[in-house]
Amino acid sequence: MGPVVPYLRDEQGLNYTISSFHFSAWALGGITAGTFGNLVISKLGCSRAIWTCTTGLALATLMLITAKLPFFTILSGYIGGTCGSMMGHSLTSIMSKRFGMKRTIGITEANIGGSLFALCAPLLVGQCVRMGLSWRAALVVPLIFFLCLFLSSGKVFNSFNAATKGFATGVLPVRYWFYWFVIWFSVASEWSIIYWTSEFLEKAKGLAREDAIQAISIFLVTMLLGRIIGLKLAHSFRVAPLLLSVSIVALSGFLLYWLAPNHVLSLVGLAITGLGTANIYPLSYSQALGAADEKAGLAAARMSLSTGTAVLTTPLLLGAIGDRYGIEKAFAVVAILMTLAMILLAIAAKRKGK
Q1: How is the chain split into domains, by residue range?
Q2: pTM higher than 0.90 for the full model?
Q3: Spatial CB neighbours of 54, under 8 Å, sequence gap ≥ 6
């Protein structure tokens, strides 16, 4: 939605409030998946759920391409957020079951792929527009990917069908909810930075608007780099102390980014923040699924409540505080969230060390 909404705003004459509903709808879709997704997947099984939800995501993309009214483009965001989240639950559940104790490596690798394609999306949209094509041409590319993957899906999934049979139900352990809150704090921080970095750098650090907008790529690139480095480290170090270390790096980088006296140091801090933040989500996710054991599918579904509510509420909170007190003071919220995540991870590392 990020690269597309500015074009929708111009085409449909939307204000910023209506435009933001596209992002809210996507987050609400994630919350819906977190609440009811395990029931759907328990009926379909993971493999069937993956392709059913991917089909729903493809249909949402077609709706976004063809719709002319904001109601339908916003609805496409809700459908995409719901189906995309449930598809993700099924994938991580299969990886957790298939890889067992090595789930951290698999989930981290999957997130590296996610980061790479997240970088590709705005580049692809921008390039299509520069070539004189519509932004809609860019969205045809993932539809082609979908068809290719769907046609080859039998070869991919037949080798571990036993891992695709439904979701266990019941009560998730306290340790799972511990990491649920770590992920909430981390995702809330990450998306607040993504939403408000350009505004912060322009208003608080004096960058030109175009430079401030492009600066967000620093955060995204270093997140990708951080996940590649984290994958290497996960082979050699225990996850609990590694999580504490990356949370310290993330908080240190953010404090430099937020409090630096000039924009150069602020951009260095933004890069360091991306390196640290990159691995908190995938490593914590793997720990949460490990704590859930046979209820990994249910745990993955409930995790969307964490990410969905974080994305939905925190950037809006920063915006409200920024309207009243200024965006620089609003970023104190991010510092608090990162500190809380670090405290929880310090407790986890200490308990693991006993």
Answers
A1: 5-151, 174-353
A2: no
A3: 83, 87, 146, 149, 150
